[in-house]
Amino acid sequence: MTDYKTLIDAETWAFIERTNSFYPVDAVDHSIAEQRRTYDRMAAAFHAGHPANVTAETTALAAGGHAIPLRRYRRSDPDRAALVLYFHGGGFVVGGLESHDDVCAEICAHTGFDVVSVDYRLLPEHAHPAAFEDCLAAFRHVAAEGVPVVLCGDSAGGNLAAAVAGATRDDPRPPVAQVLIYPGLGGDIDAGSYLTHAEAPLLRREELVYYEKLRSGGRAPGRDATAKPLHDTDFSRLPPTAVFSAECDPLCDDGRDYRDRILAAGGAAIWEMDAGLVHGWLRARHSAARARAGFARILAAIDRLGHGGQPAE
User: Fold this and answer.
1) Where are the domains of the chain?
2) DSSP single-letter state for residue 277
3) Do the Cβ atoms of 116 and 61 come closer than 8 Å?
């Protein structure tokens, strides 16, 4: 049994307890609509606002007979070296433009890069590959501007970023880099961190099983790299990659394994494991020192990669 009382510090525990306060004991039995309302309330409570020098505009991209809402963040003194395309987390079920609004604004403020956030279609109303197709369409839309694109996403959004990176590596304008934050990439759910951290605070293995069943529609999972990037058969020609995992997270090993496969294929990649942090820690970046330091490293990686640098300093 993992002793989280020793791994996790007081500031991070305060964040965990505040997050859990939004979820009633019977939350697992709530409808999808109720789950979304709860998640949205929680995200709104943690919202840190926008830096004064950042503005945001929401538009929509017409693709495949439906509209994909996009929100673009601009700094008053922009850096045109790159553009960040951000895919939000939420298990492919919850989240949207509002849930990660402040994170995107802060990435924009720090780097000067325009940031475009994608409101992709969610489960269960829209089965896989709907979310992937929306993110792919959004990537090709912004890539057509001619500015180098850095893919970025957390949790489910990290999965989508990696899937888009794999699908577009041979495009005329492929992504120049990807930054993945505690991503779920399709690792073995019966091994490694999935078992070691099966009862981790804020994300348990049984929740991942639930999300997987929703995404697969109850079907036996196939080797589909657009759903599980670790199931790809080719890890060559992927863009320079920085992966940030949380120690106390069943998804932790996915980031390490993805890094290792890119390196084995001759690519450039780093993996950092943030000690004592939990899944979803981005919302603790203003209240916990470990999360603050982790976010600073993420911002530095986006900035460095957007300027043509390597994953490691």
Assistant:
1) 4-306
2) E
3) no
Between strands 269-278 and 114-118, the pairing is unpaired
Determine whether 286 is an active site residue: no
| Catalytic site includes residue 155 | yes
Please, which pLDDT band fits residue 266 given cuts at 50, 70 and 90? very high
Fold adopted by 4-306: Rossmann fold (3.40.50)
Q: pLDDT for 270-296, tens place per residue?
A: 999 999 999 999 999 999 999 999 999
Q: What is the per-residue DSSP string for 119-152? A: ----TTTS-TTHHHHHHHHHHHHHHTTTS-EEEE
Q: Averaged over 22-36, what is the pLDDT?
A: 82
**Which residue among the candidates 101, 119, 154, 249 is catalytic per the annotation?**
249
Is the link from the previous residue into 51 a cis peptide, with omega within 30 of 0?
no
pLDDT score recorded for residue 313: 76
Q: What is the pLDDT of residues 90-123, one digit of tens each?
A: 999 999 999 999 999 999 999 999 999 999 999 9
- Write down the pLDDT at residue 220: 59
Q: Is 254 a catalytic residue?
A: no
Task: Report the alpha-carbon distance of residue 46 to residue 172 in Å, rounded.
Answer: 39
Q: Looking at residue 310, what DSSP letter applies?
A: -
pLDDT at 221 over 60: no
10 Å Cβ neighbour count for 150? 30
**Alpha carbons 9 and 158: distance in angstroms, whole number:** 26
Cα-Cα-Cα-Cα dihedral of 166, 205, 40, 69, to 10°? 20
Neighbours of 234 (CB within 10 A): 11
Catalytic choice (102, 117, 119, 155): 155
